[in-house]
Specification:
The chain is α/β, with parallel strands linked by helices. The chain has six helices and five strands; from the N terminus they run βαβααβαβαβα. It has a five-stranded parallel beta sheet, with helices on both faces. Strand 1, helix 1 and strand 2 form a beta-alpha-beta unit. The protein is globular, with a radius of gyration of 13 Å.
Length: 128
């Protein structure tokens, strides 16, 4: 893990944001949290994030639409999706859009960390 890895966490549930923030900070990551996709897009962190962990279902722009929009604009950070409403068609859509992982809430910390390790490795590969 690089000390410069910035992880952006997008979830409309403040408890989920806090839990993921605490987990990732305890592992040495720089974490930025956002209550909405719009808040994330307005921030400068959207340009320098190493990975995005986003809830799938957030109004008004859902996580998959955010991924698609960022890819269309030439930004390609890896995405990990989390959801309280796992649905195979949504999972398939997320993975087809380019998500690295798709986790159903509640998920184990070890599962999230495994996804994050994979996403950051994939992100480094894309930069080379």
């Amino acid at each position: 893990m690089s000390a410069a890895s910035v992880i952006s966490v997008l979830d409309d549930d403040p408890y989920v944001r806090a839990a993921i923030n605490n987990l990732l900070e305890s592992r040495g990551y720089v974490v930025r949290t956002f209550a909405s996709t719009e808040e994330f897009l307005r921030s400068t962190d959207s340009n320098d994030t190493s990975c995005v962990i986003a809830d799938v279902q957030m109004p008004p722009i859902n996580g998959i639409d955010l991924l698609t929009q960022m890819r269309a604009q030439g930004s390609a950070p890896p995405f990990i999706f989390i959801t309280a409403f796992p649905d195979e068609s949504v999972r398939a859509r997320a993975l087809k859009a380019g998500a690295t992982c798709f986790l159903a809430k509640p998920f184990a910390a070890s599962d999230l960390m495994q996804c994050l390790d994979h996403a950051l490795a994939a992100g480094r590969d894309n930069l080379e």
